[in-house]
Every structure is written in C-alpha cells, then in structure tokens.
C-alpha cells in the first residue's frame, strides 16, 4: 500500500463506518443468511430498491464483510457474521453505538478539544455524556448492550488469567449488565458477586444474570462510585471504567475501593496499557484515547500512569498481565500500599 493509498483509506474511514451502520440497520446479514442470495431478493426483503442495494452489498464486499459469490449474488464473509444479532459474538449493538450521532458529532470538534483540553461532547449537547444517556432510555440500553458485546472476549479470558479461588466475594464496580462478572462466577462456583453501577447501568442486569443462572449468587447494588463502593468484598474489579475519567476522578474511584478493601484484598483493573512508544498496530487504542478526550474527558494510560493513580489512592500496583485473547486489554492487580 502506498502512502497515498493509506491516507485515502483513513479519510474514507468515516464512510466505511456508516456503510457498516447501514448494513446493521437494514439487517443485511440476517437477510442473506447461510446461502448466497441475489441482491434483488435482499432488496425486496429489506424494502429497498434493487440498484442501490446492489451498490451497498458491493461496498460491503469491498470492505470484507460480504463476498460476491457470482455477479449480483452475495454471501456473508466470516467477519460479516459479527453483524448477525443472533450470534453470541455479535457486535451489532457496538456498531450502532459507535456510529451513533451522539458519539460522532463530538468528533467533528476534535481540533477544539486538542486546543483547549475541553470535552467537545459537553459543548455540543449542553450536558455530559452519561447524563445525556440517562435522559434517553433507549440510547442508554443500546450503550449497555454495546459495552456487553465489547466485554465478551474479556469475560472469557479473565478467568484464565487470575486465581479467583483465593477470594470469597467480588464486586464489579461499574459492571453494567454483569457480562464480565458472569464470566468469572461461572468459572469459579465458590465465589459470590456484587454488581455495582447506576440504576441506568444495571437496567439489563437482572435478565442477564437470570440467563446465566446467577441470580442467587450475585446481588445488585445501585449507586455512584464517586461517592462509595459496596463494602464486604475481598476483591474489587473494574473494566473500562478508569479510562472514562480524568486523573482526579479516577483516583476517587480507586480510593473508594481502597477504603472498602479488607486485609489481603485486591483491586483488579482491566484496561489497555499504552506502550511508552507507539507501535505500528496500536491505532485503535489511540483512537479510543481520542474518543475519551472528545466525549467523556478521560484517557488511555501507560503503566506509569496507572502506578501514579494507584499510589495517589493508597494502592500499590502488583502486576500487569496482558490478555492476548482480549487485546488490547491487560489485567492490572493492585493491593493496599504499605
């Protein structure tokens, strides 16, 4: 690929994202199903015009999500299967959320956020991101589903990366619908769990825990982790929480965990850990970092950054373990300092 090709592909990236969004909204993968189908048949089932549908399907084939089996007839490629909402590894809600205008509009002001350090979302919408979600139940539910889908790989990898048998009760701080905690509890039947989040964040949790058969082993605790976290656990867990917040607020969350931590307890943090020097394959993590800048005011961090947060909260970072099955996430283990 030439330098020019690379730059053009990057500039067209926003168009590619909206093409994938259209595929989800039109249920393209579901309509094609397991066998190749003519574009005209897909269009008829979608209530669309045949010629524009053919153009969309060819674009999706060019992006690697479909294959043109023969002229005008398309099959779903392996990557396209992730757009089937019926699959356990589906990313349809993730696609909807991260192509949602509420996410994208603030990106139009990235240069302003870089100049000022201000959160563009707050300026565009007149409120912060999570308050905006709280006022829109449907969007909040979509966000919760997107976070659940984004957590599925980590929920599978985490039980193999840490010895949970040493502990009695784990509280998942900001745990949403319980996807991560369910993965841990399923693998360690001797554990009980507490799922802590706002009432909006917990909205889908009862059904998810029921589906996993964990209603009796996991309790819900609605609250605000900036005020406190539930006491009584010897292990506190959080995934993709600290990166949502600037350093002072991240320290507040960790300090509340430290306050609740009994002797011998641990705090587990699941986040990407930025390298000291950017590598060739780190692009998505740094785009996530900019997303934190424009939409919520947080950031991705290096190991040294996490060490500083833990120290300020009265914790000591014990280890950092990459999770190859859930890249780019690492498991950071912290204990009470001193």
From TrEMBL:
Keywords: Methyltransferase, S-adenosyl-L-methionine, Transferase
Single GO term (MF): protein dimerization activity
Coiled coil spans: none
CDD domains reported for this sequence: AdoMet_MTases (cd02440)
One Pfam family matching this protein: Dimerisation
TM regions (residue ranges): none
InterPro entries xrefs: COMT-like, COMT_C, COMT_dimerisation, SAM-dependent_MTases_sf, WH-like_DNA-bd_sf, WH_DNA-bd_sf
GO biological process, one term: methylation
Claim: ATP-binding is one of the keywords in the record: no
Domain O-methyltransferase C-terminal: 107-315
Protein name in UniProt: Methyltransferase
Organism: Streptomyces swartbergensis
